[in-house]
Design brief:
The chain is α/β, with parallel strands linked by helices and 184 residues long. The protein has five helices and six strands, in the order E-H-E-E-H-E-H-H-H-E-E.
């Protein structure tokens, strides 16, 4: 399936699926995509998982959300943080935000730059940098960003069955959030 055909454009409130309108997920779209004025929050309304990529910034009010930033929005090694946001923070909604042009896609093509960067900037030996890369790629490579976010959503829905978990995509090209069509 074509990448863009899997995304649902959210250009107005009527584009937000009815089950997410007037929820923290709908509000996220209103704040980020539509520039809704900030409301005041004293407690987080949702958990946002997004990539650590420096090109992305989500427009939300202070105290609206917990945010976990990891390479590729990969929560495999951050589940304690997710559990904390739910159990102590009280959130009942989670969005996983992948993005276009993600560096965690096709990591093998970046091997030389990765190794050389650790050698030059961090003082690593070439051998140590290569071993680190080789050991880490199977853990952090996400493949296709859309498929990864959908698979991570499915995995987390099994683990946190009472939490609303929604897959989203951030297009670096226009700085907007899109929903990802889930297989039924």
């Amino acid at each position: 399936m074509n990448f863009m055909k899997r995304l649902i454009s959210i250009q107005s409130k009527k584009d937000i699926p009815i089950q997410y309108q007037d929820t923290p997920i709908g509000l996220l779209f209103e704040y980020h995509n539509f520039g809704r004025p900030d409301d005041v929050y004293s407690n987080p309304q949702l958990l946002i998982s997004m990539c650590m990529d420096n090109r992305k910034r989500i427009h939300i009010p202070d105290n609206f959300s917990f945010i976990i930033r990891t390479g590729g929005s990969n929560l495999r090694y951050s589940e304690f943080k997710v559990s904390y946001a739910i159990s102590v923070g009280g959130v009942r909604h989670l969005v996983l935000i992948g993005h276009t042009q993600c560096g965690m896609v096709d990591l093998m093509s970046q091997k030389e730059q990765f190794v050389q960067g650790l050698v030059e900037r961090a003082g690593w030996t070439r051998q140590a940098a290569e071993e680190h890369f080789t050991d880490s790629v199977p853990i952090f490579e996400i493949g296709n960003a859309v498929d990864f976010v959908l698979n991570e959503t499915k995995r987390l829905k099994l683990r946190y069955s009472k939490i609303e978990i929604v897959p989203l995509m951030y297009r670096v090209e226009d700085n907007l959030l899109y929903m990802i069509k889930e297989d039924q």
